[in-house]
Amino acid sequence: MFVYEEAEIWFVAGSQHLYGPEALEQIKKNIQYVTDYFNKEANLPIKIVLKPLATRPDDIYTLCQEVNYSKKCVGLITWLHTFSPAKMWINGLTHLQKPLLQLHTQFNELVPWGSMDMDFMNLNQTAHGGREFGFIGSRMRLPHSVVTGYWKDKEVHEKIAKWMRVCVAINEEKNMKLVRFGDNMREVAVTEGNKVSAQIKFGYSVNTHAVGDLVAVINSVKEGDISQLIDEYETLYQISPVAQINGEKRQNLIDAARIELGIQQFLKQGNFSGFTTTFEDLHGMAQLPGLAVQRLMAKGYGFAGEGDWKTAALLRTMKVMAKGLPGGTAFMEDYTYDFTKGNELVIGSHMLEVCPSIVDDGVKPLLDIQPLGIGNKADPARLIFSSKPGYAINASLIDIGNRFRLVANALETVKQPNPLPKLPVACAVWKPKPSLDVSAEAWILSGAAHHSVYTQALSMDYFRLYAQLHNIELLVIDEETKISDFRNELRWNEIAYCNPYA
Ligand code: MN
What's the average model confidence in pLDDT over 309-318? Predict the structure, then answer.
């Protein structure tokens, strides 16, 4: 399901034949050295594969075609070790369909003042060679990324690693299929949107499948598999008395396990990496899938409630980006406020469907079975826990009519200040940046959804890169946000992003 192990980033140095064969041989040695260093020492999430030196337009064109056709290659890094006249790159870059990063580095960290001669200068020209390449990137309006610094520098590695993760996620989106069980929640606006435009822009497809077909799979689950899964629940979670072996709602737990196995099987069979449900269409299901959804999200599936396919897709994408990083990523909704003056808080949750990846290490969630006022089904099983405190981001992707808009709000999650004995749901409690009033006003003005993807694993850099590579609008709400400026940004973006879905 995750592609980090197979993925590759291709790496090429640009040069030309002006400096003679000896210089080109030295460049080959240098870039081989840097490649080996990156793969062994830089702690990058993906392997870097070195490609032959780019010195002629035809070779560059061939390389870019190969980047496009390769299933393993998810992005291209260029290094202008010397000057490489950038008209040579036009044809190749015109056809390049994968992310491009220009690594603006030079082989020597320091200037060798005493020994530097013209041979040295012929070899080490990033300072001006990189700018020539930059011109063609800008002239061609490429969404290319730039990382500047010495190649052994940790900060350089971290920036490359972030870009790599976004490349993997963008590549994954092209293969992503989401299934909707049931349609949109009746009359809800923000969860609607243009699925054709989404597929053109992001690559993922969203299709519906009959709830009855899912129920048939759920009903075919073997009893032995259910018992085995319940054993797993008993190892991983605290089980509430009603759900224990002789508890009065034990059957509900068995039904929940059956639903989980059924949905998982349906997703695997159809090669789906995300899904939506709606409590308005549960025909034939014993209960609303709560526990099942929570556990499938924790395995990396995208999900959102009430038919919200955009949030489900964004969750899956963010899960791919965050794979292996500390901190979880979950479906979320702004639930209710605490307006205590000077300590304003947002309580976030979503009925039963918050991913347990956000729980503190070592904490065992409570698996409980409690009534649910909506859906008109049996009491559903759900995991109850509270999010680990610390930095987080809420992100929402909406269809604003002629384009997609991504909104991301920085948060400080706090320890849940009081128990919620009568609200048996998983939750997170946070202080949004820069303050509750500015954050909520900006979020509302932007039209961002009541649903969001809550992540502890990804910094704002990831959202900036993701939006940049897709050329979609990003509105950041953080410490710097002022409503007057934010309103201007909204106004100006109407012009900046005036091409429909471009
Ligand atoms: Mn909802």
Answer: 98
**How far is ligand 1, taken at its centre, from the CA of residue 86, in Å?**
50
Closest by CA position to 454, among listed 344, 323, 354, 339: 354
CA 450, CA 444: separation in Å to the nearest integer? 9
User: Which residues fall inside 5 Å of ion ligand 1, going by CB?
Assistant: 305-306
Q: For 14-62, what is each residue's pLDDT tens digit?
A: 999 998 999 999 999 999 999 999 999 999 999 999 999 999 999 999 9
**Mapped to the 3 state alphabet, what secondary structure does 306-325 carry?**
CCCHHHHHHHHHHHHHHCCC
CA of 3 to the centre of ligand 1 (A): 30
> C-alpha dihedral over 283, 215, 196, 171, to 10 degrees?
140
Please give, one letter per residue, the 3-state secondary structure of 143-210.
CCEEEECCCCCHHHHHHHHHHHHHHHHHHHHHCCEEEEECCCCCCCCCCCCCHHHHHHHCCCEEEEEC
Residue 307 CA to ligand 1 centre (angstroms): 9
- Across the range 490-499, mean pLDDT stands at 91
Report whether pLDDT(260) > 70. Answer: yes
Ligand 1 centroid – CA 348 distance (Å): 11
Give residue 350 CA to ligand 1 midpoint distance, Å. 6
